[in-house]
Amino acid sequence: MKIEKMALVGTGVMGMGIAQIAAQAGLEVRLFDVKAGAAQAGLDKLKVLLEKLVAKGKISQADFESTLARFIVLDNIEKAAGVDLVVEAIIENLEVKQKLFNQLEEIVSEQTILVSNTSSLVITEIAAGCQHKSRVAGFHFFNPVPLMKIVEVVKGLFTSEEVLDSLLELADRMGHFGVKTKDTPGFLVNHAGRAFGTESLKILGEGVASVSEMDRILREAAGFKMGPFELYDLTGLDVSHRVMESIFNQYYQEDRYRPNTLTRLMLSANTVGKKVGQGFYKYDQDIRLNQEPPQPVPAVSSFKPVWIAADYYNDADILKQYVQDQGLQLDEGAKPAEDSLIVLATYGEDTTSACQRLGVDAARTVSIDMLTDFNKRRVLMPSIVTEQSYVDQAHALFAAHAHGVSVIEESVGFVSQRVIAMIINLACDIAQQGIASASDIDKAVRLGLGYPYGPISWGNVLGTDRILLVLDRIYAITGDQRYRPSPWLQRRAKLKIDLLHSVKQKVA
Q1: Which of 148, 264, 250, 249 is nearest to 201 (CA)?
Q2: Which of 6, 362, 414, 455 is most deeply buried (CB count within 10 A of its CB)?
Q3: Which fold has domain 306-407?
Q4: Backbone CA torsion sign across 383, 345, 298, 341
Q5: What's the CATH architecture for 191-288?
Q6: Percent of the chain topping pLDDT 90
Q7: pLDDT for position 508
Q8: Contact 204, 211 (CB under 8 A)
Q9: CB 454 within 8 A of CB 446
Q10: 51-53-54-60 Cα dihedral, nearest 10 degrees
């Protein structure tokens, strides 16, 4: 069924964003809000926004006039009769939504599709009391709707394929990527987004690096647009922490989604972020007051020879060439000489474990993260007994020519290794569960979360063997179930196949 007429219930920011792109796509849009005057107020605000777009040359005057002409403000919800689709964008309360859907079934035809823009409730539960459950689906947009070009089309247990096809076609007409997803906690994008924040909080809780340094590493070394704590402050822990707890509990305390006690404490203290002037950072309006400056480069007058060992030959070659380019002496012995600086390019383990595995002196050893681009910010990890003179030499060596360097405390895997590996691993788990296809997961998460790569293709870019090595070693060292590698990832890494490769079953 092609959708031509739509009713929107709930004319807040999200609702009016959906209404805008629907009208611009040519749909008749009927607006209703239970609060008197709210629908007209929403339309008035939208008119001002569209006028600004005309002034900037984003849309034509003709488009402005035709878009506004497609709106009808309803004073009674019963006037929604005759539409092809009703979109609900009201309060996140299951009972209230169920009551609305039951009311709508008394008004609209049996063919009218009923959808919820919920981000946290279960579509199947919303549909549970409906007479015609097969026409109920999720249609979850992201804020700001006109700019976030993605919508999750959520299949409840009873939703028909015809309804899903109609919604996917409508999403395309609206200029959005419609991703078909199962009715699971967090659906697709919010589910996939759990790894970035929760693993960052875990690392922070271990004292590996400060808030500022972790944000700096994940922006500059890993390529995220914002660090995790900048993002938490922007979205607000009053939203983020509750989502963390909700998904954790809906998955029956699955370790991968485990929240952090720190954010619960901050929520209790109302230090929830930028909106209240304090979160992980303090703010004076838009100015961040307590961001730490980059770590100063120590002055080093003389350098010891440098001995290098790496899990991968390519990493060793890059490091050896770099040391030679700086005019320093390479120690190329089978074992390091007694006074050499030992540099290890290792994955998924702390420096102490790497030293024991390789049989080298921890007091002279500094590890370096080679998972991300060596030409971006470099991250170093001494052991807990590394002498300061060797830490300073390594810092100064890798900071040559004013290159950014971060020195962190010992960790089972570096900051970027842990966060990126967890993002990829969780995306592989989502593929394993069949919540969405691998290619759809990749595109949806990149559009919805703005990651440098889709989480599936990121594994291909960095190497599935490296990601699996990070996870295997962290899991072996910690025994923490959150790090167990996804079987979906393990099979593909062992077979050395592209993570986006479509595996077809053979027919006997």
Answers
A1: 264
A2: 414
A3: Rossmann fold (3.40.50)
A4: positive
A5: Orthogonal Bundle (1.10)
A6: 96
A7: 47
A8: yes
A9: yes
A10: -120
* Location of each CATH 1.10.1040.50 domain in the chain: 191-288
Q: What is the pLDDT of residues 23-70, one digit of tens each?
A: 999 999 999 999 999 999 999 999 999 999 999 999 999 999 999 999
Homologous superfamily, domain 5-183 = NAD(P)-binding Rossmann-like Domain (3.40.50.720)
Which residues are catalytic, by number? 119, 140, 152, 190
Q: Which residue has the tokens 């629908």?
A: 39
The tens digit of pLDDT for each residue in 153-181 reads: 999 999 999 999 999 999 999 999 999 99
Q: Return the residue matching tokens 């921890």.
A: 362
pLDDT in tens, 325-358: 999 999 999 999 999 999 999 999 999 999 999 9
CATH 3.40.50.11220-classified regions of the chain: 306-407
DSSP assignments along 119-172, one per residue: SSS-HHHHHTT-S-GGGEEEEEE-SSTTTS-EEEEEE-TT--HHHHHHHHHHHH
- Give me the sign of the Cα torsion angle 309, 314, 320, 326: negative
